[in-house]
């Protein structure tokens, strides 16, 4: 059947592919439908152009996946499709949201300090840690506190990828800020230096002695917990909620960062 293909058909196939290639900023997407039979119709020069374009596209995408924050990439992949929580997921997320709002209050809003916490906190052990002390558990899909690992948090793994400590590899500052605004519904930021910090939000714990600060530092998302040791698990839960892929927008179970 291939032997019966006319020269005009061959030229037509070539011209349909050569159009986008002439624009240096518009390489052909490898996702474009192109059968093996159609590829065979191309001459060697056109095949090479198509292959080079496809290889560049693939390399750029792989580089982006390595450099970009994990959740931002997932949001991009589900920007306008497969991006809604199930009814059960929405119910679970709402429960966590309500629980966290009972525990944490944005600075500037009243905090109802538990009397039991107030009377005992003087004798409680205190601790302080940054998001760099949190390690991403790939199997459980959440952050865990591993302060003992802190000196090695920026070490390079055997496969060449950065070790999974801190928020920066998992969510961009802009997406975190967006989700914090959804959570609080009344964003109140503290004063910043208008240089390294573009935004800064501080939350007070129900225990009356612990704080969780989340802010932007030189373009990167940062967080620090300072308070009672027993309350640090609540800070981890808060950060894990904000950095889960299926963090809900206020509208109809849409994943925050995607569009309905």
Description:
With 260 residues, this protein is α+β, with helices and mostly antiparallel strands. It folds into two domains: 2-67; 84-242, no CATH class. The chain contains eight helices and seven strands. It has helices spanning 7-21, 36-41, 44-67, 70-77, 87-103, 115-120, 173-184, 232-242, and strands at 104-106, 126-130, 134-137, 142-145, 200-205, 211-217, 220-228. The strands form two sheets. A five-stranded antiparallel beta sheet has the order 1-5-6-7-2. Strand 3 and strand 4 (142-145) form a beta hairpin. Helix 1 (7-21) packs parallel to helix 3 and helix 5 (87-103) crosses helix 8. The radius of gyration is 25 Å and the shape is elongated. The protein starts with 6 loop residues before the first helix and ends in an 18-residue tail after the last helix.
Please give a quick description of this structure.
With 260 residues, this protein is α+β, with helices and mostly antiparallel strands.
Keywords:
single chain; 260 residues; alpha+beta; 2 domains; five-stranded antiparallel beta sheet; two-stranded antiparallel sheet; 7 strands; 15% strand; elongated; disordered N terminus
